[in-house]
């Protein structure tokens, strides 16, 4: 029998689930938020900003005992109010101008105001052109700060450092709760940030090339078709990837349903919304164990 994905401490399992289903997707949203803002695609900035903040708030809540299955939906103001109550003096509550940022760029604003603007302009209706949007010079810097601080809090505050999984970076904190790490290391990220890498010149210097490069339908000129395509776009061996949800299901099928697996699956279903079909399938596999 192979080593099972469920054969880890419960808190470690929770941390992995939060990483796979919230933090990693939030990191991708964060990347596209900044990309959109930098290139002036403002509607996409607000939509991806909402997605980023929503996922990071949910990760922090679910790792500290709050289920995020259906109650909150996309409402980051409601999520933040729960975050504020739960995290107490460690909650993210204010925005501060970075010391290296010019004062004339920064516009004083409460965190509540920023969250309201992200919630309004990043609402799902924005995908259909139903909403107006407005921008301030300091929006990106405030969003950066908020995302950074929320991401730092994607850990169980009262989990004990080194107890559920090792982290050599924090060896001096072993035996102490993570809330102490957050307090004493204000710039420390619990989780590594992984972002896309590669040349930004793959399509040339003009942003419109995104639409026209290697596009035989929206043909503009031969140069667009003659560009050397990067391996990320045209690889010899096509890429693929399995969702972590599928890997969990595969593990149950290959290694069998153990009491430990049931405990972890029960926590997952009680706390994270994974889709009705997947939920029913995991429930079926666990129920079959009791019928043996």
UniProtKB/TrEMBL annotation:
This is Uncharacterized protein. It comes from Paracoccus isoporae.
């Amino acid at each position: 029998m192979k080593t099972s994905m469920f054969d880890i401490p419960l808190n470690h399992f929770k941390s992995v689930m939060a990483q796979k289903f919230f933090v990693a997707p939030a990191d991708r949203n964060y990347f596209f938020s900044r990309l959109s803002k930098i290139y002036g695609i403002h509607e996409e900035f607000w939509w991806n900003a909402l997605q980023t903040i929503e996922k990071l708030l949910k990760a922090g809540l679910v790792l500290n005992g709050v289920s995020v299955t259906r109650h909150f939906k996309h409402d980051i103001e409601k999520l933040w109010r729960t975050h504020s109550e739960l995290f107490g003096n460690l909650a993210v509550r204010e925005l501060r101008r970075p010391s290296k940022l010019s004062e004339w760029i920064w516009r004083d604003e409460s965190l509540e105001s920023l969250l309201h603007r992200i919630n309004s302009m990043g609402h799902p209706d924005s995908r259909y052109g139903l909403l107006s949007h407005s921008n301030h010079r300091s929006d990106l810097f405030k969003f950066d700060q908020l995302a950074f601080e929320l991401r730092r809090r994607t850990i169980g505050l009262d989990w004990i450092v080194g107890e559920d999984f090792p982290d050599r970076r924090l060896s001096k904190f072993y035996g102490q709760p993570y809330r102490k790490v957050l307090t004493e290391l204000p710039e420390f990220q619990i989780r590594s940030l992984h972002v896309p890498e590669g040349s930004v010149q793959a399509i040339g210097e003009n942003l419109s090339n995104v639409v026209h490069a290697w596009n035989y339908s929206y043909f503009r000129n031969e140069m667009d078709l003659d560009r050397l395509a990067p391996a990320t776009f045209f690889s010899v061996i096509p890429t693929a990837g399995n969702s972590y949800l599928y890997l969990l299901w595969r593990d149950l099928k290959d290694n069998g349903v153990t009491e430990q697996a049931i405990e972890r699956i029960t926590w997952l279903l009680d706390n994270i919304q994974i889709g009705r079909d997947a939920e029913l399938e995991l429930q079926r596999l666990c129920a079959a164990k009791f019928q043996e």
